[in-house]
């Protein structure tokens, strides 16, 4: 039985809590929350489940003192690295940490930041790794595997397309993701704008891991982000995206190798599909240009018997974390590079030492 603490219970954090509560080999032993209104509330109640007998807290010291195998970190979106201090304290307290927002290849930075995280792992005999959908799955794992069909590769493109109209949290939609911003005030490539500050480092790290897996030496990672604006007011679940403001973001990073763009990650988040490259795109596409080339597309979908309000993406994030837990617990202390595969395992409790 693995003992789990959830750090933050927003949309994805709540989905992970539900996944842990439903799993026979996992025990929820704590949850950190930001707000006073959630502190003291049973974690089951927080996520719409029966009481679990574990109460959330906004006291960091209580979390540090708790006995747990893994803390799943799903903190609020901020500039990449802004959660390092909390993560360092968790690692030093002897808890393994899985982040759903990057940290899949922290050694990429090879700087004081990665050194401090590594030292925290050694001090606490703990491990840090990242797991998620993007970052954490489609590029670092799927795209690298698809290149195995090619004997030579000119270019790898990973494309995500996600409809943001049903996002419930106004702060997340309008602040963290940048919808509703005035492009005359906020440039899509302004490093001081929150989405750019949050995503540039995180996805540069993703490009870094793909390059490492493909044996490519990066010259650098370039970004050339694009935003599109609404022609009329667009009502969405979290509010209204006003005419003339950002209704579609296309975040783009390119891995430059030998002076050429060899890797591209393109993320379309939108509330208006007008400027998409194709109607009704899949969640993900991987396009490999090579000998031979390969193209795949992936969607996630709910179980046919599932009548819950959870989205398939929420289920998938929870699964990504759950499937990584045995490997992180079994890993040697330090910064753990996200494995190439982290599949579902029927032999869950004994799968941590199994190479696949």
Automatic annotation (TrEMBL):
GO terms for biological process: lysine biosynthetic process via diaminopimelate. It comes from Pseudomonas lactis. GO terms for molecular function: 4-hydroxy-tetrahydrodipicolinate reductase. The keyword NADP applies. InterPro entries: DapB_N, NAD(P)-bd_dom_sf. The keyword Oxidoreductase applies. Keywords: NADP, Oxidoreductase. SUPFAM superfamilies: NAD(P)-binding Rossmann-fold domains. The lineage of its organism: Bacteria, Pseudomonadati, Pseudomonadota, Gammaproteobacteria, Pseudomonadales. This is Dihydrodipicolinate reductase N-terminal domain-containing protein. It holds the Pfam family DapB_N. Residues 8-72 form the Dihydrodipicolinate reductase N-terminal domain.
